[in-house]
Amino acid sequence: MTRPLYAYYGDDFTGSTDVLEVLASAGVDSVLFVDAPSEALERKFATCRAFGIAGDSRSRSPQWMSTYLPALLTRLGALGAPITQYKTCSTFDSAPEVGSIGRALEIGHATLPGPFIPIVVGAPHLGRYVVFGNLFAAAAGSVYRIDRHPTMRSHPVTPMHEADLCRHLASQTAMRVGRVELPALAEDAAAEALNRCVLAGDQAVLFDGVSEMDLLRIGTLIWDRAGMHRLFCAGSSGLPYALIGAWRRAGLIAAEPLPRRTARTVDRLLVVSGSCSPITERQIQTALRTGYRGVAVDAEALVSDGRGAASADRLVEEVLRNLRDGHSTVVYSALGALKPGTAAAGAALGQCLGRLTARILAAAPLPRVLLAGGDTSSHAVAQMGLQALTWHNSLEPGAPLCLAHADGAALDGLELVLKGGQVGSDGFFDRVRLGR
């Protein structure tokens, strides 16, 4: 096996494919496993230099993390990469009882011990910025502090009420978290600032970042430290983006990204959405106005013990009728934010939608599918019998077109896009259909 540069566990599937895109489009041969791979599957991708395991810890409890994450991180660490990352959403949304990033830091520190844990959340390519420890995120052409962001402040599972990421983590872990701030990056004093944090006893260090130059400096510093001691890291796709600059400087990868690709156009697209985001709502409305057929999901009925089977049968029948009539179709559980008092179905809904998708594709094979919603995608893909994903081509930042691998299964070769709720332009669904 080629000695890898980097390994990661993604806390949801959409974010995991975001990292896959960042790496592969830069010329780093990469694979994303849907679960811990068998030795045979690992050998199939032995020439890769970056390996990921996509997970769903973003929607799991600290107890679940304590049970499952140590083995997954140990497996990734055994690959021998200088850096192993716990990849979080770039909005860093989490809570003490759900998707606790603080608990993940504790598990990583115990499983893959190192001198400190770098935390890189800023991802300018996605409109995510960290300034003096506070997270800002773009939406609809404006940039908001994350606790004032129109979607993330009212996320149905993990609303963000705190923009200071050190304070946010303090509600989830007792670990000390220091900061390397913008002035130190601008003055090339980041190494000195990092040393001060480590000497002060900070177990993790959060890096500010608002520009590509910031990320280059961060990536170079972290890669230099990883040459002294293997590092467990945390944060968004901003970290691999930063490392690519360091690897290019060191001559470890090609100096230029791969030429932009396009994919074939498909005549029909199936979209399955469990997202409550207003961005996804606009995408669904745009698709419906331009000829897509819509199939609304009664989430409460679908996940119920008594009505679930009949509801699923009706949905599958309607979707198949649309597809056989030649219509691209959007299956959606929500149009924008849930009504006050409505509980998010979460994992149960995602699992049901995954089983529905597999049933639809078995009856009406399609070359390409789009799944929308971070939690939805994570739980849905796990129901589809896939083994791994590789990058096919880029469409819009954070939502690449991927190729599914499932040896001997009907869905081997399926082209798949996993889109987070906050990702994509209004006409994104048809960009996926057109392949560009």
List keywords for this structure.
single chain, 436 residues, Rossmann fold, Molybdenum Cofactor Biosythetic Enzyme, Chain A, 37% helix, globular
Topology (SSEs and partners):
Layout: E1 6-10, H1 13-25, E2 30-33, H2 39-44, E3 50-54, H3 62-77, E4 83-87, H4 101-111, E5 117-120, E6 128-131, E7 134-139, E8 142-145, H5 165-170, E9 177-180, H6 182-186, H7 190-199, E10 204-207, H8 212-228, E11 231-235, H9 238-249, E12 270-273, H10 278-289, E13 293-296, H11 299-303, H12 308-324, E14 329-332, H13 347-363, E15 368-372, H14 374-381, E16 388-396, E17 399-405, E18 415-419, H15 428-434
Parallel strand pairs: 1-3, 1-4, 2-3, 4-11, 5-10, 5-11, 9-10, 12-14, 12-15, 13-14, 15-18
Antiparallel strand pairs: 2-16, 6-7, 7-8, 16-17, 17-18
- The value of Rg in angstroms is 21 Å
CATH class group of the largest domain: Alpha Beta
Number of strands: 18
Main β-sheet description: 15 strands, mixed
**CATH-derived architecture of the largest domain:** 3-Layer(aba) Sandwich
SS content category = alpha/beta
Per CATH, the superfamily of the largest domain is: Putative sugar-binding, N-terminal domain
Counting H and I runs of at least 4 residues, what is the number of helices? 15
> Order of strands in the sheet with the most strands?
9-10-5-11-4-1-3-2-16-17-18-15-12-14-13
> Cα distance, first to last residue?
34 Å
Nearest-integer average pLDDT: 93
Number of domains: 2
The fraction of residues in strands falls at 15-25%
Multimeric state of these chains? single chain
Low-confidence stretches: none
